[in-house]
């Protein structure tokens, strides 16, 4: 069976040519629009970068006066924009600001958090020092309103957490006050004891001098009470210092340091560490150091029981060549 080949009609050829031409035109228009958008985006990015770079250079090179003027102008612009914004815009701005703050605090390090809190405390202190009485009343009123609105909108769980934190703060403050009170009482007691001792040791002091002492003592007590709040708890004695003191005590109070002996030549009693041992052959006139027989007989006849409690004596041993310490008894004498 032969399949006949039909040629396409002229109208169909015209439609296909028209569709191909139309697709080419549409694709060319889409590419042109895309290129135009990319070019606009690149121009916008370059313009932003050109605007940011000079601003950064200006911020680096600006002086304190220029910085103050710039911040004042920025503050005025912010106040003007906030006064003209609607509630919806204000809500969106605050939400964006909260999100940025949360994101920054999640990614900050402990050092950055510490620096941020220190800067915040310094700003708060500076603002409170420079504010007037009216500004202070307005600030306290706003803080009170915020606290009341927060407590009205809080849940039961949030309320329990807030009360628990408040309880912990109260306990810490009470403990701190007790410590400060005890330290101030101790200082007052010590000052009174010292003043009483001074009065007891100087009973003949003049009235003017005594009044001056009391005045100075009262001033010292007042100063100590003021500084007791910021004073630190005394630190414990270090282990190295204790060991050094104990070593010095042992060196000065040991038996080797406290033992005494009598010199066989000059009959002087002194510490054993200061004595020197010498050979008997080097001592001149050694026969003069020997105890005569008459003295021995006299000692035997005169001393009875007291010899047992006699002090140490120095005896010279003729068998050895050095001087030795001996404790003679009645039989040896």
TrEMBL record:
Residues 70-89, 105-122, 153-164 have a biased composition (Basic and acidic residues). Residues 165-176 have a biased composition (Basic residues). Residues 182-199 have a biased composition (Low complexity). Residues 200-209 have a biased composition (Polar residues). It comes from the Eukaryota. Residues 1-30, 70-222 are annotated as: Disordered. This is Uncharacterized protein. It comes from Rotaria socialis.
